[in-house]
Every structure is written in C-alpha cells, then in structure tokens.
Amino acid sequence: MTFDDDDLERIAAEANATSYGLAASVWTRNLSVAHRLVKRIKAGSVGVNTHMAPDPALPRGGRKSSGWGDERGREGVEACTELKTVLIAL
C-alpha cells in the first residue's frame, strides 16, 4: 500500500490492527520516514526495504500473539540464564 508522509499514523494503526506482531516490512526511499514508521509499528522485527533474513546473531521476538521474549542472539542466551553474584573473602 502506498502512503504519504502525513499518513504515518494511519499506516501504523492499520499495521498494528492485528493480534500478531512477529515481523513487518517498510518500503521507502526516505530513511527519515522509515525511522518514524518503524517506531510506530508493534512488531518484533521490522525490515526496511527488505524482509527479515534469519541471522542467528540477531535476536528475534514476537509481539502480541506472536510469541513472547527474545530468542537467538545474546538476548536469547540471557533469557535462559540467571545472574548470580558470589563474593568470597579468603
């Protein structure tokens, strides 16, 4: 769907009008518009001028009914660990 700069709120509302939020794509020549629209879209991953290619170094998480938490990447590892501090005086 095409859009103008003044349509960003409407476009984001339409994109967010779903119970899912795994991934989205924004296609534009204007990087400023891309940043403003990406902020408004409720999805775990947003590609600009591309679809999200799987990369094990990047965290991936869904929003709404598309899952919870992050998996893969450092964030995924940290989600499966628990921090503990141990102090020993010798």
Your description of this structure?
The protein is an alpha+beta fold and 90 residues long. The chain has 3 helices and 6 strands. It has a two-stranded antiparallel sheet with strand order 1-5. Strands 2-3 form a two-stranded parallel ribbon. It has a two-stranded antiparallel ribbon with strand order 4-6. α1 packs across α2. The chain is elongated and about 65 Å long.
Describe this protein with a few key phrases.
two-stranded antiparallel sheet, Aldehyde Dehydrogenase, Chain A, domain 2, 90 residues, two-stranded parallel ribbon, alpha+beta
Please sum up the structure shown.
It contains 3 helices and 6 strands. The chain is of the alpha+beta class and 90 residues long.
